[in-house]
Design goal:
Among the domains are: 1-88, no CATH class; 115-192. Helix 1 crosses helix 2 (40-48), helix 1 (21-38) crosses helix 3 (51-63) and helix 4 (75-85) crosses helix 10 (305-313). It has helices spanning 21-38, 40-48, 51-63, 75-85, 97-107, 155-161, 170-173, 178-181, 257-267, 305-313, and strands at 116-120, 134-139, 146-150, 187-191, 203-209, 212-220, 227-231, 241-242, 273-281, 284-291, 301-302. 30% of the residues lie in helices and 20% in strands. It starts with 20 loop residues before the first helix and ends in a 7-residue tail after the last helix. The radius of gyration is 20 Å and the shape is globular. The chain is α+β, with helices and mostly antiparallel strands and 320 residues long. A five-stranded antiparallel beta sheet has the order 7-6-5-9-10. A four-stranded antiparallel beta sheet has the order 1-4-2-3, with no helix packed on it. A two-stranded antiparallel ribbon has the order 8-11.
Length: 320
């Protein structure tokens, strides 16, 4: 059994000092990656190389050591294992924004899903659409390609904003995340679910293992001063931070916490691990997305023991 989460020892990753052999290895990983990014020939060779090697280089850069891919222990190592080896049909739709909304409604008919106002590849079609005052343009097959729009769109401006969006995603070509390869390459416009002033609701991310919520990540101000906090399902603040994102202030429990937990558990049923993203809005609980590869298995937790705690909750499937 994993330790009680509130009693985790402040275990830390080995510090990167000049006397630390892992620090030297990590710096080597940074140098290799920097050289590859500067030379197109090396990039091409890297992308044709074994996925296990590519993932090991990424992991080395972040942690100063190689991942245990044969017997992974931590959450991050197991996400890397999934990226390298897990090709189950269960995961095939989890990075396609249009398909995941359909799947969310199939799994949980009571969940609200942001309306799709348009989908396609020809932005000129948007000029004739009666779009609302606020809307969101996304790439269906990628992560973090998002444009917040208002009123009647300028097609010329959107063509500039989305330049390169209809190519294979960074998650597919650089990180090797298989489910992104299965997603339809297109754009979509969704309804805005934030407030009238343009502020998005808190982004609630439920880490679910075997259909049960273990941890809730709360992300605030994703498009400005981004902060994050961690809570257990009873909404007790966890003594955990993510190294690259400042900690959020104390946040009151969502008004619909019980319903959020119920929706997350229904949506995650059948997965050994999945992150379910939801929003608590004036219209109730709204679906965000499924995430099979959180942060591409490269998030640095403090204390580092939290990574192992989450890893102990995840029983990987047998490799086929």
């Amino acid at each position: 059994m994993p330790p009680v989460i509130h009693d985790l020892a402040p275990e830390s990753a080995p510090p990167r000092t000049s006397s630390d052999r892992w620090a030297a290895v990590g710096r080597l990983g940074d140098r290799v990656w920097s050289r590859m990014r500067r030379r197109s020939g090396l990039q091409s060779l890297y992308r044709r190389g074994p996925l296990t090697l590519r993932r090991s280089v990424h992991y080395l850069r972040y942690y100063g050591r190689l991942p245990r891919l044969v017997r992974p222990r931590t959450l991050n190592e197991k996400v890397n294992w999934r990226i390298c080896f897990d090709r189950r049909e269960l995961l095939s739709w989890t990075c396609d924004k249009l398909r995941m909304k359909q799947e969310a409604q199939r799994r949980d008919p009571g969940i609200a899903v942001p309306a799709t106002l348009w989908q396609g590849t020809d932005l000129a079609e948007l000029a004739a659409l009666p779009l609302p005052d606020r809307w969101v343009l996304k790439a269906n097959h990628s992560s973090q390609l998002v444009h917040l729009g208002a009123g009647r769109p300028s097609v010329a401006e959107l063509e500039q904003v989305t330049r390169g969006w209809l190519t294979p995603s960074y998650q597919e070509t650089v990180f090797g995340e298989w489910a992104y390869q299965q997603a339809e390459v297109c754009l979509l416009v969704e309804e805005w679910i934030g407030d009238d002033d343009g502020a998005p609701p808190a982004d609630l991310k439920f880490l679910c293992f075997d259909g049960r919520v273990a941890v809730i990540q709360v992300h605030l101000s994703r498009y400005s001063d981004h902060t994050v906090a961690f809570y257990d399902p009873s909404w007790r603040r966890l003594p955990v931070t993510a190294s690259k994102t400042p900690p959020a202030p104390e946040i009151p429990a969502p008004r619909n916490l019980a319903q959020l937990l119920e929706h997350a558990q229904r949506l995650s049923a059948g997965f050994d691990f999945i992150r379910v993203d939801l929003y608590d809005t004036d219209r109730g609980v709204v679906f965000g997305e499924f995430t099979p590869y959180p942060a591409s298995g490269l998030v640095e937790f403090e204390p580092a023991g939290f990574d192992r705690y989450l890893g102990d909750l995840w029983t990987l499937p047998r490799r086929r």
